[in-house]
Amino acid sequence: MGLTEWAYSLSESLLSDPLPRRWAHSLGVAKRARSLGPIMGDDAELLEAAAVLHDIGYSPAIATTGFHPLDGARFLRDQKKADERVVRLVAHHSCALLEAEERGLRQELEGEFELERPDLVDALLYCDMTTTPDGTQTTSAERLGEIVQRYGPDTIVARFIQRAAPEIHAAAKRVEGRLAQVSTDAQPM
């Protein structure tokens, strides 16, 4: 079984029944990741696997701290002996260090999981923050607005997402720039 096939199967087993909307979101993020194939090269499969797994920490079967990047990464590392790079991407997806700081878990997250390469971190952040909870495409601005509205402006998640907004928008711009460059380079003369 290949990495992506394994990742889809695991994510489905943890999310589809207890959290069908989270499963739909994860499928949408993975679809977005597949669309980045032209700029991901040899890391395309890695990105897609991390994309479909990024929110498994929400699963009631594995949630322990209540902070899904940490719970998901620990489960992948400790229970599934998953690819180290997938684990690091799940641990740090979508500016997780800032949310960890809000939750008093930054030292744990930083101490247990190294950051992955910046272009991969950007790519997963882009995929997550341009996909709605239902799995459809959106803009990073609309997604951030939706998150604040869904959680409420005075929650930990809303505070974190507002702090992370400049980096989220910058990462989206970097990924979109790379996609545009590949598209331009592929045009015949």
UniProtKB/TrEMBL annotation:
InterPro entries: HD/PDEase_dom, HD_domain, HDIG_dom. CDD domains: HDc (cd00077). Residues 22-130 form the HD domain. Pfam families: HD. PROSITE patterns: HD (PS51831). It comes from the Bacteria. NCBIfam families: HDIG. This is HD domain-containing protein. The lineage of its organism: Bacteria, Bacillati, Actinomycetota, Actinomycetes, Kitasatosporales.
